[in-house]
Write a structure and sequence with these properties.
Elements: H1 2-46, E1 55-59, H2 65-74, H3 81-91, E2 100-104, H4 110-119, E3 125-129, H5 135-144, E4 164-168, H6 174-194, H7 205-218, H8 225-238, H9 245-253, H10 265-268, H11 292-299, E5 308-311, E6 320-323, H12 326-365
Antiparallel strand pairs: 1-2, 3-4, 5-6
Helix pairs in contact: 1-3, 2-3, 6-11, 7-8, 7-11, 8-11
């Protein structure tokens, strides 16, 4: 009887141990499975990716991380979209992805890719319009950009574009880029008009824009713009004609070509709406798209009594010399003509030297 009780107690004790052993075994197995799974996920996330070469990946505006992960897997950048989106969103500092095109390095890990999409800089696509270009030149450049879609079939108003660089995403329409340029000019012109000198001889923002376009075409030296603007403002106050050569050229080309020659006497004397040698005050529209500095120069010109200016040297970058009287201006013009004649003679001499050298080279190579 006693032996039977002892055996029962032994069985009872052994059963508890068995249960504990089984529990511990399951616990260890669970830890191994969990640990192994975690190791697998981490190795997939931080290890080399399947993409064998550097490629561009595009993030569309409004795409969430799950959508981006699926597209990355479909395009061969990552091996598992679920790991990328779920694990990445928990271990990285940010999972807010930017829109745009991104350069993804060859064999980039999921971690590297997510960091690039959240903290890197998208590739920049932009259209740049130089100061002083006409709308014809600007639209031609926009239409030539093969990353844009659609077309611009009608030229906008001259002077309605603010020069500068405008970013876009590939696939944007050409019209949307043009719209940005025009909105920028509208805003810039309104702001400059509000800060103008109160006694300017200009009646509207449109007149300021027209004069700024003339200033822009008259000088390629940025620091001269306020000085040149003041000459034209002084002329308007004195009731003098502006007598600007670029206005003659615009009357000939209407901004839709370039004049690759000098202005003829007949063109100076021609009656066109843009020829400021023949008309009073301003032409009917701008003759180009002025930049923000030209607008500001007209709104706040220098204070001086100059009424004339002429080129200082043979190239535009040398700037101009200014005069208060016509007699002084004529002296400056005579000096300019001497400089221009010397530059032309020097250019012709250099061309002749080059021709002679070419002839000598060909003669040396010819059979004797």
């Amino acid at each position: 009887m006693n032996d039977r009780k002892v055996r029962r107690r032994r069985r009872s004790g052994n059963g508890l141990v068995d249960v504990l052993n089984a529990f511990l075994t399951l616990l260890v197995i669970g830890l191994v499975v969990v640990g192994g799974g975690a190791f697998f996920v981490a190795s997939q996330y931080y290890g080399e990716g399947p993409n064998p070469e550097q490629r561009v990946f595009r993030v569309e505006s409004g795409n969430g991380l799950s959508t981006i992960a699926q597209r990355l897997e479909e395009q061969g950048f990552v091996s598992n979209s679920l790991i990328f989106s779920q694990f990445g969103s928990r271990v990285e500092d940010s999972s807010v992805v930017k829109a745009g095109d991104f350069n993804i390095a060859a064999n980039a890990s999921m971690s590297d890719i997510l960091k690039e999409l959240t903290t890197g800089n998208p590739l920049r696509y932009a259209v740049t319009i130089p100061e002083g270009w006409t709308v014809w030149q600007a639209v031609d450049r926009i239409n030539d950009d093969d990353q844009l879609t659609g077309s611009i079939d009608q030229l906008p108003q001259e002077g309605s574009i603010l020069p500068g660089s405008y970013d876009y995403l590939p696939g944007d329409t050409r019209q949307s880029v043009l719209d940005k340029m025009q909105v920028a000019m509208t805003q810039a012109l309104a702001e400059v008009w509000e800060t103008r000198e109160p006694d300017l001889p200009l009646d509207s923002p449109a007149e300021l824009l027209i004069l700024a376009s003339i200033v822009e075409k008259e000088t390629g030296v940025a620091t001269e713009r306020p000085q040149v603007a003041a000459v034209f403002v002084n002329r308007l106050r004195e009731g003098m004609r502006l007598q600007s050569d670029p206005t003659i050229i615009y009357g000939i080309t209407l901004g839709q070509s370039t004049l690759d020659r000098g202005i003829r006497r007949s063109e100076i004397e021609a009656q066109t709406p843009y020829n400021t040698y023949q008309i009073d005050r301003l032409p009917p529209t701008p003759i180009a798209n002025p930049g923000i500095d030209a607008l500001r120069a007209v709104a706040n010109p220098d204070e001086h009594d100059y009424l004339y200016f002429v080129a200082k040297g043979a190239t535009p970058r040398e700037g101009h010399v200014f005069a208060e009287t016509y007699a002084e201006h004529q002296q400056n013009v005579a000096r300019y003509r001497e400089i221009a004649a010397e530059a032309a003679a020097q250019s012709e001499a250099e061309a002749e030297t080059a021709r002679q050298a070419l002839e000598a080279e060909e003669a040396a190579d010819a059979p004797q």
